[in-house]
Amino acid sequence: LVKSRSTPEDEAPEEGASFTFMVPKKEISMVPDMGKWKRSQAYADYIGFILTLNEGVKGKKLTCEYKVSETVEKLMDLLGTLDRWINETPPVDQPSRFGNKAYRTWFAKLDQEAEALVSVVLPADKRAAAPEIAVYLKESVGNSTRIDYGTGHEAAFAAFLCCLCKVGALRVDDQLAIVFKVFNRYLEVMRKLQKTYRMEPAGSQGVWGLDDFQFLPFIWGSSQFIDHPTLEPRHFVDERVVNEHHQDYMFLECIKFINEMKTGPFAEHSNQLWNISAVPSWSKVNQGLIRMYKAECLEKFPVIQHFKFGSLLSIQPAKP
């Protein structure tokens, strides 16, 4: 899934000794540093991971059959725990409608427990990676100061999953489960957070952005539709189609959530998506969204300045 950094078999148990994990830190502090990011091993691994999953889900429904490994089950338990904590932390009464401060209480719990939660997911011989990998989990649920959430947080969750692949906790044959089970559940929990605590969109481009909060499910979701016999891009603006097929398609789940959260004509509140509905084929939509993701998220300093680099997602230049 990503080139894992495994040592030869005979010294595998020694990996903890031969390899030093580190707590990730920010490396991109000024706009000129962006070149360092685009040339980094982290960038190559991250985009490779996104594109491998994009290929893996091509033409497949959320409801199709796929292998569910023990690690995937453990990740589902972890996300279930985050979900349960939302129920245990109701929003508080406050004058401001947005950014409910109860979110900070919820976040503090994750901050405290993240390392332990991640430890449980890792194989025993890789527990040393928990402090490094847990950072990406904490970064993936929004910002507790601003009580906002955006595509940078979503990217941290993809980075979290990428790291789990790099240490061998997730494998190539987990691809479908990573997107359809784990990432889909993550989206459910994020939508619940956004709704419950009225989180602000981070760095929102308003009506000119694709979506206030997410991007990846539109990429992977459009790939699911490639070569679909009947459903074309023009159909996703039809509410009947959305209601009938959203259980099978990530893209439509996103549209359904937008329709629940926004009022007024779709063309006005989601202009970019409205434009996309005019593209003739899903493979064109998919390619266009990948280009847009690179340009609007991965190459934007305000997003990438928050990205953290460690031993698994390294700032070192990529090996040619």
TrEMBL record:
Presence of the UniProt keyword Ribonucleoprotein in the record: no
Q: Where in the cell is it found?
A: Cytoplasm; Nucleus
Q: Name one GO molecular function term.
A: metal ion binding
Key words, A-Z: Acetylation, ATP-binding, Cytoplasm, Isomerase, Magnesium, Metal-binding, Nucleotide-binding, Nucleus, Rotamase
EC numbers for this chain:
5.2.1.8
- By its UniProt entry, which Pfam families does this protein fall under? PTPA
Q: What catalytic activity does the UniProt entry give for this protein?
A: [protein]-peptidylproline (omega=180) = [protein]-peptidylproline (omega=0)
**The protein, known as:** Serine/threonine-protein phosphatase 2A activator
Q: Name one GO biological process term.
A: mitotic spindle organization
Function description:
PPIases accelerate the folding of proteins. It catalyzes the cis-trans isomerization of proline imidic peptide bonds in oligopeptides. Acts as a regulatory subunit for serine/threonine-protein phosphatase 2A (PP2A). Modulates PP2A activity or substrate specificity, probably by inducing a conformational change in the catalytic subunit, a proposed direct target of the PPIase. Can reactivate inactive phosphatase PP2A-phosphatase methylesterase complexes (PP2A(i)) in presence of ATP and Mg(2+).
Q: Can you quote a single GO CC term?
A: cytoplasm
Point out the coiled-coil segments of this chain: none
Please verify whether the record's keywords include Transmembrane helix: no
Q: Which family does it belong to?
A: Belongs to the PTPA-type PPIase family.
